[in-house]
Amino acid sequence: MESFSHIPFQAPPRPEEGPLEAVRDFRQWLDKRRSLRFFSSEPVERAVIEELILAAGTAPSGAHKQPWTFVAVSDPHLKTRIREAAETEERAFYAGRASESWLRDLAPLGTDWQKPFLEDAPWLIVVFRQAHAPDGSKHYYTQESVGMACGLLIAAIHKAGLVTLTHTPSPMQFLSEVLGRPANEKPYVLLPIGYPAPQATVPDLVRKPLDELAVFFEAGAQ
């Protein structure tokens, strides 16, 4: 079996202000990121979408199999087909497929079956998880790998000054059919991408503080 050659590691430069200030600035910048449902029709050039996908592709993956496919859509007819199919599933979800507790948790966010952002946003990126390679060979930790790639993609979208929303209609198989994807690819998440609409609003949410996020076991602690 052929192995990867090893090359010298190029360490990231240490920030002049020190790691604490650098990561605090980064965290505060990320804290401004919000999921948005209201998009401007202002166009986004394809080159930006390409760079976003390349950024997502830097994510780690099991055995470096890179088990993801990013399908970018700006064609208005395809976006309409995706919206119509998504809303069919969402109507069923809100009409009875979702549990009462799930609907109660969603109610403060003001969501419903209508998904106009799937046509309003200039681009959609549909992320597919490759359950195995096209030739049938095995992939590893595909859920975890694709999840990490999506996290980097969302951060890159924020870096570009754009907004997005993680849309996961259930079931999502219609995305495979509309986009003509092979059987080894499973739809993972749908991300509309663009600039925020003028006067766009978001729910006034509060994120969990550190003491609800983390547990520390420090060296030297008794």
CATH H-level homologous superfamily name: NADH Oxidase
- Lateral strand order in the biggest sheet: 1-2-4-3
The proportion of residues in beta strands is 5-15%
Poorly predicted residue ranges: none
Give the total of beta strands: 4
Order of helices and strands: HHEHHHEHEHEH
Molecular shape: globular
Explain how this protein is built.
With 222 residues, the protein is an alpha+beta fold. Helix content is 38%, strand content 12%. It has one domain (41-197): NADH Oxidase (3-Layer(aba) Sandwich). It has helices at residues 19-30, 46-56, 76-97, 100-106, 117-120, 142-159, 173-179, 210-213, and strands at 68-73, 123-130, 163-164, 185-194. Helix 2 crosses helix 6 (142-159) and helix 3 packs antiparallel against helix 7 (173-179). The N and C termini lie far apart (48 Å).
Question: Could you give a quick summary of the protein structure above?
Answer:
This protein has 222 residues and is an alpha+beta fold.
Explain the layout of strands and helices.
Layout: H1 19-30, H2 46-56, E1 68-73, H3 76-97, H4 100-106, H5 117-120, E2 123-130, H6 142-159, E3 163-164, H7 173-179, E4 185-194, H8 210-213
Antiparallel strand pairs: 1-2, 2-4, 3-4
Supply database-style keywords.
222 residues, alpha+beta, NADH Oxidase, 4-stranded antiparallel β-sheet
